[in-house]
# Entry
Amino acid sequence: PSTAQIATDFGYEIAFTGTGEPSASADAFAQVAKGQRVLFPRARHSRQSVQNKLGSIIKSIDLIVYDNHPAADFPLRCSEVLVFTSPLNAKTYLNRHDMLPGQQLVAIGNPTASACRRLGKDPLLASAPNEEALAQAVLHCLAGE
# Structure
């Protein structure tokens, strides 16, 4: 929804907005885009989960518009809550730093939560993959609920 709003602000008409969850979004998008050519601007290291799920239902055209890569060096943060907004964030941080006693994890979506779980951590999953739900999850952790 946030990306759709920015595109609308630039004068584009939005025909479809996903939920932020790849599987559900791909299923819904298939109903709208079946048989059409679809451009996917993406990161170089994207998992391409929507494109992969749609397979031959659409003609997928990839356009790499940015390159995301892990930071080489960054400091340990002594925060009460660690917030991860992508699988790459989670893997990079958790592979380099142990969690401190009492720290809690929050993940913005299922792909990020899954990356945390593969590393043996159990994050609180935001109720939706958006900023408001992420903030609510952080507040939940800080309130000790």
Helices lie at 2-9, 22-33, 49-54, 87-96, 110-118, 131-142. The chain has a mean pLDDT of 89. The first strand starts at residue 37 and ends at 43. The radius of gyration is 17 Å.
